[in-house]
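P.,

For your records, the input lines for the assembly:
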Amino acid sequence: MPPKIETRFGRIRVERRVGYGRLYSISMTLLSLALAFLVVALILTSLGLDPIKAFQVIFGVFTKPSLLLESIKQSIPICLAALGLGIAFKMNFWNIGAEGQIYMGMIASTGIVLLHEYYGFFYEWMVMPLMFLTSFLLGGAWCLIPGALKARLGVNEILPTLMLNYVAILIVDFLVHGPWRDPKGYGFPLSIPFPEYAKLNIVLGDPAYTGLLLSILGAAAAFFLLEYTRPGFEIKVVGQSPAVARYAGIHVRSTILLGSFLAGGLAGIGGLSIVSGIIGRLRPGASPGYGYTAIIVAALAGLNPWVIVAVSIFFGGLITAGGALQMSMGIPKAAAQMIQAVIFLMILVGEFIKRYKVTIERPRVDEE
Amino acid sequence: MIEWIESVLGLTIQVGTVYLLASLGEIYAERSGVLNLGLEGIMVMGAALSFIFTLAYGHLAAILISVIAGILMSLILAVMAVYMRLNQTVTGLALTMLGLGLSGFLASPEVRKVILLALNPSLPESLLAIQEAPKLPEIHVPLLSGLPIIGCFFRQNVLVYVSYIAAPLMWFILFKTRPGLSLRSVGENPAAADAMGIDVFRVRCLATMISGGFAGLAGAYLFLGFQPFWQEGLTAGKGFIALSLVILSTWNPLRAILGAYLFGGVEVIQYRLQLFGLGALSPYLLAMLPYLAAIAALVAVSIESVRKRIGVPASLGIPYSREE
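Structure tokens returned:
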């Protein structure tokens, strides 16, 4: 029996929709995006700010080549982290810790650069591959902690992943205020600037291009893993039903460990893209919440790796627009974060409208 | 020595009250089967609003507005997670993001000025730009506040006293009254509760609103009673720590008192260690203590839960629908 809510105007019925087309699904997502911007417009108007001008600035980001490049640059860590989250969420592993895993990736890449700069540990050509390797390993290890707690002890992963975000951020704070502080940095909490060989500008000299390539490669890898390999298949089965997975002879524990490691590793490479692509050094607060934005991106993209690449560029644009809004209209930077959250909420409401049909039955007169 | 104990204990109570207020409401939500992961966002909104409204209208209005805002925000969660049956984790997280973004936006100097002038046009220019607000005054209970050591329990602000009364009262309502029984049965077995004639949706909606109200109050207390200068995201994960605390207290308001002061104590130890020689160890490493303690608590409880099957609300996190 579907739930009914009696109101004065009639009876609200909520029924499950039996299957819907892709076109319907996409149009509903677009509708919820439009609704989100309507809500944002209402908030801005009520504070006496001009929403139309604000939206012109936001969408103007995608028309100016320089700002579009900046948006793509901003989208790289979001995209890589969201690709990892796509794997984790498919496994029903609620990793809210991409932010911390990004920070661990930044630590690993900076560590390699410092090792080479201070002690000359490696050949120069080895530095970049080592940065990739270690940031993947450290990000993965950071996610492996809650993964192992879940697999071994049955601890729900939501809160541990969240807590480890704060811990990772504090480790970065400790490092740049202490042992990793640039001796020539006038006491500011910054690492030394990365030398050219440790920067993501192999393709066409701009980190945006290399980053976009990285995002696409990451999406291809995630897509291949989930669609064409045995571990990917096992990850999906565990996500749908651990009981079925066990019955099918899948080792659920090791699947959880593998899935969480891969998810964290991708976010770790996202961290690399920040220090060696966007900023060029390590500093406190180097990620303004890319790992949280990645959750919205993964949800909005329906966990599809290819869609994640496109959606993260949109959100990279929103973050870029945050700076532009501050400069041109004096709207504080937190506005970008607020807009993201409103979009997130509206997309969730859109999911509901997709899945259920809401009808209002008017009471007939002869019943009265 | 006694002075030192008193100062540590007094500070422990002050920090612990943040956790206690937040977890009391959350216990109700989770007992009814709803995980309110929006706690962090509601708390930070409560802090931001109490900042703005204290400057405009004073403490009482600020606290009331924070509670009302908390209830309204949790109503969003209730509608989405209870009535629309959307995933509670994702919805709660979205609410936390909304709280963090909106609070940072509203309390930023530019927007705050506009709001303050709209609320109270007669405010002096000097109040429009400051980052702090007057702290809640301490109220000394006659006689009791003069006692050695435990006297510090009675030299606190009004919201601490509210928490002293609320914890046992909420325990009593939850375990000894009919509405409390209904609430617990909805969290344990919603289908059976439904068959008994309890409106599962309404109970869950109300419980979520209670958690929102208390989270708003906790945010107001955090700002007005403990740390009355604004910075973006000043809750710094305290809402999430409160969520771990709810699990540690096994969804029992009385045990939440102990847990809250335990976590308050961990934070105070961190401040104290900084004063001693261990401060050289870097404040950033010490600041990790509360988060690591929260993880340790979660692990400890889960090990125990395997052994003794402590009372996890059986339908926690599962949306109820009559169809299935």
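Two observations worth noting. Residues 2-31 of chain B form the longest helix (30 residues). The mean pLDDT of chain B is 86.

Regards
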